Amino acid sequence: MALTRRAGLIALLGAVAVVLAPRPGLAFGLLLGLLAVLIGVDLALAGSVRALRFQRQGENALRLGDSAEVTLLVENPGSRRVRGRVRDAWAPSVRATPREQPLDVPPGERRRLVFRLSPLRRGDHRAVAVTVRAFGPLGIAARQGSHLAPWSVRVLPPFLSRRHLPSRLARLRELDGRHPALVRGQGTEFDSLREYVVGDDVRSIDWRATARRQDVVVRTWRPERDRRVLIVLDTGRTSAGRVGVDPTSGDPAGWPRLDWSMDAALLLAALAAKAGDRVDFLAHDRTVRAWVSGASRTETLPALVNAMAPLEAELVEADAPGMVAAVLTRARRRCLVVLLTDLNAAALEEGLLPVLPQLSARHQVLVAAVADPRVAELAAGRDSAEQVYDAAAAEKLRGDRRRITARLRRHGVEVVDALPEDAAPALADAYLALKAAGRL
Amino acid sequence: MSVPTTPRIRDRWRTWRGTVGALLLITLAAVLMVGLTAPRPGGYLDAEGTGLGGTHALVELLADQGVRVEQVRTLEEAREIATPDSLVVLARPEYLIDGDVLDRIDDLPGDLLLIEPLDAMLPELAPGASMGSYEPVRSRAPECGLREAVQAGTARMGGSFYQLTGPDARCYGGALIRYRPGGRTTTIVGSGDFMTNGKLAEDGNAALAMNLVGAKPRVTWFAPRIPLGDEPPSTLEELLPEQVDWLIWSLIVAVGLLAVAQGRRLGPVVAEKLPVVVRAAETAEGRGRLYRARRARDRAAHALRAACLDRVVPRLGLSPAAEPDAIVAAIAVRVGQDAGQIRSTLYGPAPEDDARLVALARRLDLIERQVRDS
Lengths: 440, 374
What we know:
A: Immunoglobulin-like, Rossmann fold, five-stranded antiparallel β-sheet, B: 46% helix, transmembrane (chain A), transmembrane helix (chain A)
């Protein structure tokens, strides 16, 4: 039940009447009675909210930063017209607009209401309740009730780095057969024989074939295909730290490292899928948070995006031995393990470094991390003593980062440490370099 | 398909009826208990007062003995019920200061018991009596021949002591006097303390009080609450017209309805799990503040120098493990500066104050830039 302002206004007018009446006590009693009767009649004549039936249509998934429309079908099977207001309640960050809409459904008919969602956060969002307030014919009182009309929307990572994909695919084609590479790398595969043209490397001449064909023939090579790439996303506490500027909302508080890492992982996955490699995905902190394996090349990206959508950084220390064990049990053949984490000296020295040899003995390991531009900003401060102290602290942090990088490299691990905006292209370039060198 | 989530009214009633019932029961019990046991209001020497200062206990005792005590507040009431065969107890004489009122009290038929009368009213009500000294209230012996006092024995008496000019019965050193001026038995006590609920059980208080008050079968207990004789002033409520009262009630109803209309939410409040917001640079900033707070120039200088060397040494083509001497020499050759100055910049002691720390940072920047540009 709900009242409208009209009820209050009637009571105010009644107050005037009470003042003017010869017997104010009686007038007050009459006013109370009148109000009770009007409210009762209006409630009795209002359309039934409980009988309404709701259905939804619309989108189930959207990228962060986009907006989606969800349609609400309201059916009135009752015998009275339902006239009032509807609110479709979602979590505040989903930003369902308009907040409420007018509704007017005659008996036996249905109406279509469209709500637009512009979520601010990644993950799964569920509709909480649909609430209808149905006014009576006098507009004094209303019936109000809520219905559960289930619907959920999955907000996917925005994959902003896809703008870097065309240029990286061009580089990939250079490596690939369309721009034949005559450099023989470790692990490259024999592709075909073709006639020598001026400019080819004489070392690639296949003398046996030349002898048979009476023409100079060179061997061409192509980069290895059907390699495996395992992207491991660290969802522990170090991934919760915010760096840079949130590219979807412009929030200067930054975007979590996890989201930057996802962006880089998606570019890498898209590139690797195009290059004919198989991409698996593992998210891990204390336990396995997500695992995607065996997706076909065209399905890789949707599968990854779906698996990443609900991931959030957990405020726990990542369990590096557990992560290594999870990788070793899942990846039986040699693969490129891309570990997206933070180069936090303390966390890595205690966690990853002791177990790294097990991993690097069987797999090629690449550690990718997102550096904090704010630290670089602090390190450049020279204007006052305070700024120099901050700069020293920032330099100390960067020094630790350099040292841990050097130690990782001594273990034969590739390290990519780039600022947020550059992380995705830098990781893609590192992958292409490994591929060109035949080290996958 | 949708499911209604708002409970039906009867379901809601089923959920809440236990709570509502319990609340009603508790309220009822509380009201009953308070109503039965709370001291009834009433001031000092009020015949209906059940507090420590009231005299309801005495009234009850007298009722058991067949003595009817009726409390009156106004002179008119007193005049209605007073008979020649009754006793008028004047309990709160401080409100009776008007001479005209005193006259009319004097005209009341029957005997008179004055409790703590003021000096000013003695000539009217008790001619021949006058007020003497003032003594504290304590246990006193009767020391007189008055039957009522002798039977009661010691009692808590005191207050004003009275003197008489004529023949009299003067007990407790003057705190109780009895005589018959003009044919009516007049008793004066200097303190009513002994007949209050709080003190009645001590000494011979109860006996004395019953002897004095229960002398006649009907007692008019005259205890006015406001000064008699003057018109009581009209209050604000009485001056306002009747409509204002009802206007206020109507406005309360109107505002209540408006509040309900405005306060009713359309649908639930939706709670959301908020993400953690931790800026990654907070560790660096925190460490910077620590350096600053402790003026840790040595650590700051060390960090700045190490960072500079990390960047400069690879550019010089030296291995990271190169000796300081080799590094200093290489830089000196590269930038064409004095080796001693470069050594003190890169390996010298920690700066002694903040200004020198800033200067050191700038010199390190300069060396780095020169090596890079050369």
